[in-house]
Amino acid sequence: MSATSEARILALWEAAADRPPLLRTLALAAAGAQQADVADLTIGARDRHLLALRQECFGPTLACLVDCPSCGTELEMELSIADLAVEDVDDDREAVHLGDIKIEFRAITSRDLLAIAGSSRAARRDLIARCVTTSLPDDTQSLPESVLDQMSAALAALDPQADIHVEADCAVCDHRWNAPFDIAGYLWSEVNAEAVRILHDVHELAMVYGWSENDVLAVSPARRRRYLEMATP
User: Are 21 and 135 found together in one domain?
Assistant: First the structure.
């Protein structure tokens, strides 16, 4: 990893570290999209920016650990960015019918998720209500559960990139299943771990040699490890 990319990792970490999960995700996505506000993007569009940022910072291959839901064995998987990229749908709007009423709605955005954060047990209904784009004779709170179920399924189909699952196969018990993959959580764990490592190097070498952060980042990780080894009694 170059000094430039290490500085980028530290900038990403600093921008996201003290934020709650959803705002942390938006901070990373904004960096990937190179634009300030990504909250109004669909969840899938936001996650595409996270995938692009992950490839930029750490490359196209992702090493994963997953527990088999049948026997509990921890399995290693290797994925690629291409494995996780889903072709976008042609439209981000859909409709269902309630009798003679056509209910049109759009795909979910992060701003919608922010709006319902901490809401009551009616969170699903509140989220769907935010996505309805047609005027209804009655409030969306009166929509029957069967219609909400249809809309939930249609919302998932509108934005397939928002809900990624990968095929997994247990070599121990032969169980096969689709494991969910969360690019936001995965990327943040990598950024956080790498930033902590870099900060540790900066701290140790500053203590021993009096180097500044820029001095440390200017030295390659391989040479830095050797300096650290020589500095250890």
Answer: no
What pLDDT tens digit does each residue of the chain (233 aa) get?
665 689 999 999 999 999 999 999 999 999 998 888 899 999 999 999 999 999 999 999 999 999 999 999 999 999 999 999 998 877 878 999 888 889 999 999 999 999 998 776 678 899 999 999 988 777 777 888 999 999 999 999 999 999 999 999 999 999 999 999 999 999 999 999 999 999 999 999 999 999 999 999 999 989 999 999 998 77
For residue 65, what is the enclosing H or E element? strand 61-67
pTM (two decimals): 0.90
Instruction: State the residue range of the domain holding 170.
Output: 3-87+164-231
Stretch (H or E) spanning 64: strand 61-67
How far apart are alpha carbons 107 and 132 in whole angstroms? 9
Q: What are the angstrom distances between the C-alpha of 199 and each of 52, 91, 178, 217?
A: 25, 44, 37, 10
Q: Please state whether 2 falls in left (phi above 0), alpha (psi between -120 and 50) or beta.
A: beta
Count of C-beta atoms within a 10 Å radius of residue 64: 14
Question: How many domains is the chain built from?
Answer: 2
Give the Cα separation of 203 and 78 in Å (integer): 33
